[in-house]
Amino acid sequence: MPSGTEQKLIRKLKQRKFRWQEKLFMAEGPKVIADLVSEGLEPVKAWSTELNSPYQVISEKDLAALTNFSTANESLAIFPFPELGFSNSPRILILDGINDPGNLGTLIRTADWFGFKEIYCTNGTADVYNPKTVQSTMGSIARIKIAYADALELHYSLKENYRLLRADMQGLSLAEMIQIPNQNIALVMGSESHGPSEFWQENTEAITINKANSESAIDSLNVAVAGAILMERLAQK
Q: Beta strands 91-96 and 185-190: pairing type?
C-alpha cells in the first residue's frame, strides 16, 4: 500500500493548487493509465489491486479510501504534467469558462479525434488535470497541447492568422458562412450556462447548429455535444 507520505501526496493532489504546484496529476483505471503510458508518460508512482500488474499492489479497501470517484477502478497512478510544444495547428479550440470537468474532458477527447491539435483555456475553465477531466479524456490529455491563457493576449496572438469563430445560438449556420479554403480556424466554445463571454462575442464571428426539429422545446445543446458537431464540420473545411 502507499506509504504515509504517498497517501498525503495523493490527497493533496485532489486540490487544483497542489496539482499545479507539484506539476503532478492523478489518473485512475487500467485503460486510462495504459493510454497515458502508451503516449510516453511514465508514472511517478502507480498502484493496482491486480496481483499480476507491474505496479505496486494495493488492497481494494485502501484504493477505495484514496479514489476520487464513488467506485474505485482497480488502479491509481501519479503522473507528471505532459510537456508538449505548440506548433501553429490549423485547427485550434478555445474554451471560455467551461466549468464542468466532465464536459472539459469530453471536449479535449473530441478535439483529439477531429484533429484540433491545440486547446487554450480562458478564465473560469475547469482544471484539465482534475481527476474527472483526466478520466473523460481517455489519454488525449497526453496528445493535445493545452494551455491556460488570458483572452485579450490570446486574441492578439491569433487574430492575424486565424479566423475566429464562436458557437452561438444566434449565429450563421456553416452552410451560410462564406468559406475560405485552407484557412486556419479557431473555434470558441463558451460556458455551459452563459455561452461565450462578452469579449469573445465582440471579437469573433458567430456560427450555430441549425435545429432540425422546429417543434422541439429544447433551446440549446450540451456544450460537449455542440463542440463535437462543430469540430466535425470544421475539420472538413
A: parallel
* 162-197 exposure pattern, b = at least 16 Cβ within 10 A, e = fewer: bbbbbbbeebeebeebeeeeeebbbbbbbbbeebbb
Q: Of 146, 110, 121, whose CA–CA distance to 200 is shortest?
A: 121
Nearest to 109 by CA among 155, 141, 157: 141
Q: Is the per-residue pLDDT at 23 higher than 90?
A: yes
Q: What is the pLDDT of residue 174?
A: 78
- The pTM assigned to this predicted structure is 0.91
Closest CA to 109 of 6, 30, 31, 12: 31
Residue 124, sorted as left (phi over 0), alpha (psi -120 to 50) or beta, turns out to be left
In order of their start, the domains of the chain are 4-80 (3.30.1330.30), 91-235 (3.40.1280.10)
Predicted confidence band of residue 216 (pLDDT cuts 50, 70, 90):
low
E strand or H helix at 4, and its extent? Answer: helix 4-12
In whole angstroms, give the CA distance from residue 176 to residue 82. Answer: 39
